[in-house]
Design a protein that fits this description.
- By secondary structure, the protein is an alpha/beta fold.
- The chain has 14 helices and 8 strands.
- The chain has an 8-stranded mixed beta sheet with strand order 3-2-1-4-5-6-7-8, with helices on both faces.
- Helix 7 packs parallel to helix 9.
- The chain is globular and about 50 Å long.
- This is Short-chain dehydrogenase.
- Belongs to the short-chain dehydrogenases/reductases (SDR) family.
- GO terms for molecular function: oxidoreductase activity.
- Keywords: Oxidoreductase.
- InterPro entries: NAD(P)-bd_dom_sf, SDR_fam.
Length: 331
């Protein structure tokens, strides 16, 4: 109850920010000159939280690489950002996060540009009411929200480690997750079933499972990065329940009546992007890794999300799937 009241009132936490903080407010003290050497890749940035994250980071001087399935939408976002920030550097590249082959092509194209990479925001989110499968024959929500971002991170990780070594600037990976990861029970989280739910598919459960996987990914990769003394961090961020397409367009996620009643409590897009921008740029999060953030403050994820054995098991199963079944030639 105390936490709920704090959220509703927008009371600031230890960081000095709270649930009402906007992305611009959370980054307003950051110098454009110090950020001008930074490059960030932000997935899902053609709308919603991702577009706002791109806008604010660009406003703070960060070069933005915007991967998109629909390049026309991406061009609209680019023009919108550059109208406000004419000097913003924005690069558009094509990607379909549900396709391993597309992710490979994107990474090859990005790496060919020989740019540094300081920030990777795994933001894109898919909610599918009906059971759908990707071209790789994997359940679409899990393929997009988790597996796609896992592979993207894997293929770009050495570039981030190298950039951090050369520049001395800590690399930062941000996995955008959701509080609904708390809804997942241990007996519902079996890798084979996540890949191919044979019966009783539920869109909300599939979404929650993918968001739990995002946190476990951050936890396990953080441990691996620390073990190799890499100057790269990875954290998970819950943006809050935001007025985005995932909420509006899917009645299976929240009913019309509940949406109407809760509309006054939902965050704006700028408030929803605040935690992502804060974790990506703030000096306060320097060196913090394997954490879970909400409302621009470190928070608590579920017991299952903190299970080291579960995190390692998921990482190992995912890597085997990707490297043996689909990408045997990737080291």
């Amino acid at each position: 109850m105390k936490a709920t009241l704090k959220y509703l009132a927008g009371i600031a936490g230890p960081s000095g920010y709270g649930s009402k903080t906007t992305a611009e407010q959370a980054t307003r003290d950051f110098s454009n000159s110090s950020n001008s050497q930074l490059t960030a890749i932000i997935t899902g940035a053609t709308s919603g939280i991702g577009a706002e994250t791109a806008r604010v980071l660009a406003k703070r001087g960060v070069r933005i690489v915007l991967p998109a399935r629909d390049l026309k939408k991406a061009q609209i976002v680019k023009e919108f950002i550059q109208k406000e920030t004419p000097m913003a550097q924005i690069i558009l590249l094509e990607i379909d996060l549900s396709s391993f082959a597309s992710i490979q092509r994107f990474c090859a194209e990005f790496l060919s540009l020989q740019l540094p990479l300081h920030i990777l925001v795994n933001n894109a989110g898919k909610f599918s009411q009906k059971l759908e499968f990707s071209e790789d024959k994997i359940e679409m929500t899990f393929a997009t929200n988790y597996l796609g971002h896992f592979l993207l991170t894997e293929l770009l990780l050495e570039k981030m480690v190298e950039t951090a070594e050369v520049t001395g600037i800590q690399g930062r990976i941000v996995n955008v997750t959701s509080v609904v990861h708390n809804w997942v029970k241990r007996d519902q989280f079996r890798f084979s079933q996540l890949l191919n739910p044979k019966k009783y598919y539920n869109g909300t459960r599939a979404y929650a499972q993918s968001k739990l996987a995002n946190i476990l990914h951050a936890k396990e990769l953080s441990r691996q990065l620390k073990a190799r003394n890499a100057n790269v961090t990875i954290n998970a961020v819950h943006p809050g329940i935001v007025k985005t397409g995932i909420i509006r367009d899917h009645k299976g996620f929240i009913t019309d009546s509940l949406y109407f009643m809760a509309s006054k409590l939902l965050k704006s897009t700028s408030q929803g992007a605040a935690s992502t921008c804060y974790v990506a740029l703030s000096p306060q999060t320097e060196g913090m890794s394997g954490k879970y953030f909400a409302d621009c403050n470190e928070s608590h994820s579920s017991v299952l999300a903190n299970d080291k054995i579960e995190a390692h098991k998921l990482w190992k199963g995912t890597r085997v799937l990707i490297h043996r079944r689909f990408l045997p030639h990737v080291n």
